[in-house]
Amino acid sequence: MFLVVFRNRKRAGMSAAAYSADAERMEALARAQLGFVSFKSYVANDGEVIALSEWASEDAARAWGRHPDHAVIQRRGRDEYYESYTLYTADNPRTHQFERPPE
Predict the structure, then answer these.
(1) Distance in Å from the first CA to the final CA of the chain
(2) Complete DSSP assignment for 71-101
(3) What is the per-residue pLDDT across 49-100, written as a single tens digit (0 to 9) for each?
(4) Taking the mean position of all CA atoms in its chain, how far away is CA 75?
(5) How many beta carbons lie within 10 A of that of residue 52, not counting itself?
(6) How far apart are CA 86 and CA 51, in angstroms?
(7) What pLDDT is attached to residue 94?
(8) How far is it, in rounded angstroms, from Cα 65 to Cα 36?
(9) Which residues are registered as beta bridge partners of 46?
């Protein structure tokens, strides 16, 4: 597994409607990519966003990063949507799981 963590803050006054449309389109496109496993996004009380995507391999995640449509939206994000962001990646992160058995 290859994990991508995208931590970001949006710009004040950016178009929430445009951002939402681009985000929905990118998520749908990512889900169709070879090696896509999962995606979740969380918003903190202070507005910071953490988006987590899991990929089958680093190659799959990097291929998504180079996808031409994704590259266009990445540029738009830097130009119009984001105040700041940090991208973290981890290949084969240590994983601990717990699941309560059915009662």
Answers:
(1) 31
(2) HHHHHHIIIIIEEEEEEEEEES-------PP
(3) 999 999 999 999 999 999 999 999 999 999 999 999 999 999 988 888 999 9
(4) 15
(5) 15
(6) 11
(7) 87
(8) 12
(9) none
